[in-house]
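=== Structure Prediction Worksheet ===
Name of assembly: unnamed complex
Input type: mixed (protein and possibly other molecules)
Chain count: two
Listed entries:
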Amino acid sequence: MTAATLAAPSIAARLTGSRVGRRRKIVDRSMRTLAFGAALLCAVPLIAVLYFVTANGLAAFSLDLITKPPKALGIGGGAANAVVGTAQMVALAALIAVPIGVMAAVYVGEFAERRSARLVRFCADVLVGVPSILIGIFVFTFLVLPFKQFNGFAGAVALALIMIPVVMRTTEESLNLVPNALREASLALGVPVWRTVLSVVLRTGLPGILTGSMLAFARAMGETAPLLFTALGSRLVNVGDFGRPMDALPLFIYVNARQPVDALNQQAWGAAFLLLLVVLIINVAVRARSWGRRIG
Amino acid sequence: MTTTTAAADRFSKGASRVPDLLFRSASGVFAWVIVAVLGLLAVLLFLNSNQALSKFGSSFLTGTTWDPIAGIYGALPFIVGTIASSFIAIVLATPIGLLTAIFLAELAPRRVSIPLTFTIELLAAIPSVVFGLWGVFVLGPFLKNTVEAWIASTLGWIPIFAGPTDGVGLFAAGVILTLMILPTIIAISRDVITAVPDAQREAMLALGATRWEMITKAVLPYARSGIIGAVILGLGRALGETMAVTMVIGNKTQIPESVFQSSQTMASQIATTFNEASIGLQTSALIGLGLVLLVITMTLNVVARLLVWRVSGRGEGRA
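=== Predicted Assembly ===
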């Protein structure tokens, strides 16, 4: 005890006392401050984007933006075509992607031999890294080119391809957290494997699966590049006709931002505000749960 | 890690009855859909670009003329634009991202690191097109009058930093890309730094090192390959990023002489001209650009994942 209290100040004295010690201390201090500064710097763009999208978006926002389509001639109207299109395409994409992603995760996590599990997992990871515009070209080659018609279905498929690996990987992670004892208990009761997976494993992992699906949903909602050559965009409100072009909020923002007309740029800000609001609400709602768990 | 490997074949021997076998093969079909999609993606891009690639051969990569009217397609301007904008992003994002990851993993108290991590996750959630909109109307004009003007006046004697500044062009694209790849670099670097065993830190501290010396001499060398992997993953994302870049890079087919000039990347060239392209040689050439992009990003992804796995174990450490 006494030895420790005696030793402690002497090390501190050596650090501050000698020239080398002082320099080491200054380097330590300044680099730690620099790291803190870098971390703060990373928060700046988020705040700046939020601020400008909210300020410009609110100014351009009105009920018309959601309820009215663009005027057939001239400038004005709203983005109802884009809102309706995004809702339909992302919903259909989720209908395609969630079953495939969840079942693929079941295979990888529950059934597959280690080597094939690794291959599927690897392909999913690589698929996440494929630029989304290439997904658009890929879908174009087999769902647009043969029919000579841009269509909403192709857009939904392209978005689904972006969602699938995200859903699969998050589902797999949540299945890994399901204790093996639950599986064993279910099997010991004579429940067949398929019932065990559906009613015990997936049931227990459901919160994680929902989290992953919602995040994938939010990501697909903001994707533009895969829709450029598939759904194309449209000035008409298209309800339910997946065989024809459809608009989407990101497409609406992109097209209007590139017009040299101030009123159209304003509409782009309004639509961006709407899109960002929905995407961030989903993200915050989903992440806040795990965030609260971590902090509490 | 151990749970992943142990879980890999939980039921592989248990499923023997007919409904179980059916369920098992059904799930297998869905899983192999993912593998098939990736394979098909490469095959279809290859087949659909074959016309241009076989006509121009290696001059498709080295040619500097991209002229749909004359029917000559050389992709070099776009390759240069892609590499240059991503290079700017990597140069800016690596130090900032690494310092932030160090701060989050080693220095910050939990009540600081948790909200900051949350903020960075939200930054990653912002859609690319929203970044682009903000980039064109806010960031570009801001850069033009401040950072770009300053660089041009102090370093302007070096040709690549020569003015005039525009707020649209390679540099603006590089800055936007920086913001978009920071979350990737930070998240993965933080994970691999956290995965470094505590014994490394304790040993260094026991020798009397300061916290910073511990980080640079014991933690970072251990995590090095994972951090390189994180940067490569960020690079992969930058190379393929489309919308935000398309909106701020200026869309001009030229090999830029200065970082402030307009340019075009492979992805942005596809995005801006694919729909107007006539089916045939021009479409084929654009899909060829896509194929080049696919080969580059896939290679980088594979290399990066192997590097990250080396530090943090298989199945973990992903974007």
